[in-house]
Amino acid sequence: MYVVGIRSLGGKFPIAGFKAIWGTFFNWKIIPIVFFFSYLLLLFRSTLEEQEEKKESLKVHVARLKHMKNVLQEEVRRLEREARRLNETLRPEILFNHGQPILNESDDVPPIFFITPTRYHPAQKADLTRLAQTLKVVPNLIWIVVEDGDRESVRFAAFIQSFGLQYIHLHARTPTNVKTKNAGWKGHRGVVQRNQALFWIRTHFASTTRGVVYFGDDDNTYDWRLFREMRTIEKVGVWPVGIVGMKLVETPVVNENGTIIAFHAWNPRRSFPVDMAAFAINISLLHSYPAAKFSFDVSAGYQESEFLVKLNLTRQDLEPKAANCSEVYVWHTKTQKPSLHASERRKFELQEDLSEIEGRSVL
Ligand code: UDP
Ligand code: MN
């Protein structure tokens, strides 16, 4: 039919030819098919475009994430560096070298003679453990521990030795007759023990003129910075003491020139209105004034002041320490008397029938 159609076109071609071809190919039935395929084509094209767009935006997203990764990695490195730097600065204060503190002082610093009277009571072991561990961080410190008793106890000796500190263990018994109301007991504690320590220093360090002597009771609280400050004392150093004399803090009042102009303290009329924990002296003063010691024969609250008077000091000799008396590095804390059942107290006082673990709790 197709061949016949062509032949019959004759001279009328191309219109007739076109019609013939049109007639041959055109068929109403193919219209939906054409539409369908066009639609498919369009659909395919738009999906392709969409995919292309998606790909582009993912590429941007990936690039952004990579950038963020770099920024965060850089930040992590910066923080790690910062942490290392902080660690380095802290290290000298917290690290121990073979049990010896590093701090930021060499072992060549002037020695500190730290005098501690101590008596037998249920919390004695606890108090001394806390104190010993504070002293552990202080270089070149000689701990003079003076037991209030007729002899040095064996248990005590083993206990003190266990801390690995430089120490000397002495004893001196507080006379019972001074402790009674009839004897006019003025509450002077640690008198004979401190004097025993002073005697020991004067005897064994007779030719030593470099060093500082400090009276450190066993239940106070000490910041190690105090020890760093007291080494440079030429005659007598003074500083604030927290929670003492019915006050939050007792302190010398220092003006902008670094001169002490007053005392914020209990009874500021004393020649030296300071607590036992508020001062330290250069060892050479002990040798210059060999008779200077503590005494039961002074008014209550005058022990420190009278001792400094005996060292021939004046208020002008006082050297403010602890950042010019602007920091509190020692507190006159007091260990509470523990409440014990009468039977427990008896066991403790007689040192009898203590179980092994009870024996480990006390000295
Ligand atoms: N102390 C002592 N014998 C006593 C009472 C006290 O050796 O009979 C010691 C005590 O261990 C401390 C210092 O003397 O190291 C001062 O005593 P306490 O802390 O009781 O006095 P306060 O804090 O009231 O001045
Ligand atoms: Mn005390």
From TrEMBL:
Stored Pfam families: Glyco_transf_43
Reaction equation(s) it catalyzes: 3-O-(beta-D-galactosyl-(1->3)-beta-D-galactosyl-(1->4)-beta-D-xylosyl)-L-seryl-[protein] + UDP-alpha-D-glucuronate = 3-O-(beta-D-GlcA-(1->3)-beta-D-Gal-(1->3)-beta-D-Gal-(1->4)-beta-D-Xyl)-L-seryl-[protein] + UDP + H(+)
Transmembrane parts of this sequence: 20-44
InterPro entries, sorted: Glyco_trans_43 (IPR005027), Nucleotide-diphossugar_trans (IPR029044)
Biological process, per Gene Ontology: carbohydrate metabolic process; chondroitin sulfate proteoglycan biosynthetic process
Ligand binding (Mn(2+)): 219
Location(s), subcellular: Golgi apparatus membrane; Membrane
Family of this protein: Belongs to the glycosyltransferase 43 family.
Protein name stated in the entry: Galactosylgalactosylxylosylprotein 3-beta-glucuronosyltransferase
Organism: Steinernema hermaphroditum
Phylogenetic classification of the source organism: Eukaryota, Metazoa, Ecdysozoa, Nematoda, Chromadorea
